[in-house]
Design a protein that fits this description.
With 415 residues, the chain is an alpha+beta fold. The chain contains 9 helices and 18 strands. It has a 6-stranded mixed β-sheet with strand order 11-16-15-14-12-13. It has a 5-stranded mixed β-sheet with strand order 10-9-8-17-18. Strands 5-2-1-7 form a 4-stranded antiparallel β-sheet, with no helix packed on it. Helix 6 packs across helix 8. It binds zinc ion (2 copies). One zinc ion binds next to loops.
Length: 415
């Protein structure tokens, strides 16, 4: 089969505000026909031209017009062989663009950064960081992981399962005290057949999870610690609460350093792998993002409803607060609980500047009363989305894919 890349082309009629979309098919490394569509606008009766590769009417593989706003009058082989006016406000995207304000732009996985100084995943006995040991164990088990994935992938192709996550339960030994430690790691279930490597995985939990992080850190460390907690919550939590008054530096500095600001936003947005973020950031930050990306570009994306939904959430945030906390709400029947990371660190790029961080755990009721209610953040009883399906490796006969009801369905061992 040819390697096909799908791109979306968004456009506006040459003379009115009627908007349309093309699902553009491009053959990677193959022969692509230049051309486009002659379209009739069903709103203002204008006929105009929009360029697209490999255009087709109905049958076969090629680019096509989505929706009923326009009628295809003709298809041209060459973009210069017509005298019609052309479409306006054109945006082309593959959905993987480097521009973080784009909806779905950051579907890429972040990478777990192994660092011996992070006391999050540690041996319950000697408090030694065991990230390296876990990744060595993952590497030793790649054949098992890939065999089980391969089997499930065939079932996925037959529509028997629709997993979005692979979780891997195993154990390793602490390199210091040799104690055996059970752990859970996960990755996204790839709907494009692939071979997994250890870098595709994130550590999510260890038996007796007792992080020992309360203290003072540089912003570089804070950013990495927050990242590891969010990666953990991506699997274990039903909701991830982000309360940070600011994103990075002030408006002036952000406009002066758009690349740095862009990097930070990209990092932050890419962490929301399973769309669990609930964000509260000062409303003024929305205006800042608008200016950094130029109001015109922003308006253009907004017009096509192409803004990243997490940026839209910033727009509905509140004005006055200085509290900072990050939390994962973990469903566990009537005993649902919340892990909270709190301190002076707000979403900020790496630097040597010092901040303090504290990790604490409490019942959902306490968290709601003490953190959510004062911030007026609405929240119903925690539960996993019904669309969460996890392929649990090693495959247990009774459960190839599970739909978790509470956190005990995800990790096997006792807390
Ligand atoms: Zn029109
Ligand atoms: Zn140990």
């Amino acid at each position: 089969m040819q390697n096909i890349v799908n791109r979306s082309i968004y456009f506006q009629c040459s003379s009115c505000t009627n908007k349309g979309e093309i699902d553009e098919v491009v053959f990677k490394g193959g022969i692509n026909d230049e051309g486009g569509f002659i379209l009739y606008c069903n709103q203002c009766n204008t006929t105009f031209f929009i360029e697209a590769q490999n255009p087709i009417h109905n049958i076969g593989v090629g680019s096509r017009i989505i929706g009923n706003n326009f009628t295809v009058k003709d298809i041209t082989d060459f973009s210069w062989s017509n005298n019609y006016p052309t479409a306006r406000e054109i945006i082309t995207t593959t959905g993987q663009d480097s521009n973080p304000i784009f909806k779905n732009a950051w579907q890429v996985n972040p990478i777990f950064s192994i660092n011996h100084n992070d006391k999050i995943f540690i041996c319950s006995e000697c408090k030694n960081n065991i990230e390296k040991e876990v990744f060595n164990d993952l590497e030793n088990n790649l054949d098992l992981i890939n065999n089980d994935y391969e089997g499930c992938f065939q079932a996925y192709m037959r529509d028997w399962y629709n997993p979005n996550i692979i979780s891997f339960n195993s154990s390793t030994n602490c390199s210091e005290c040799k104690r055996e430690i059970e752990y859970t790691a996960y990755s996204k279930f790839s709907t494009l057949e692939k071979r997994y490597s250890k870098e595709d995985f994130f550590i999510v939990d260890t038996q007796k999870f007792e992080p020992n992080i309360n203290g003072v850190y540089t912003r570089e460390q804070c950013k990495r610690i927050l990242e590891k907690f969010i990666l953990r919550w991506n699997l274990l939590a039903s909701n991830i609460i982000i309360v940070s008054p600011f994103i990075g530096f002030d408006k002036k500095l952000s406009i002066k350093n758009p690349d740095k600001f862009n990097e930070l936003l990209k990092w932050f947005l890419s962490l929301d792998t399973f769309k669990k973020f609930q964000i509260t950031i000062r409303k003024s930050e929305y205006g800042k993002i608008r200016e950094v990306f130029s109001k015109e570009t922003f308006k253009l994306y907004e017009g096509y409803n192409l803004l990243n939904e997490n940026i839209e959430k910033v727009n509905s945030s509140t004005t006055k607060f200085h509290a900072k906390f990050y939390a994962g709400i973990i469903p566990d029947g009537t005993n649902s609980y919340v892990e909270v990371l709190t301190g002076s660190y707000n979403l900020h790029p790496s630097s040597e500047s010092k901040e303090n961080l504290t990790f604490t755990q409490m019942s959902f009721q306490d968290f709601k009363r003490n953190y959510l209610d004062p911030m007026k953040i609405p929240m119903s009883e925690p539960c996993y989305s019904v669309s969460t399906e996890i392929l649990k490796i090693p495959i247990n006969e009774s459960e190839v894919v599970i739909k978790p009801k509470d956190v005990k369905d995800i990790v096997n061992y006792n807390f």
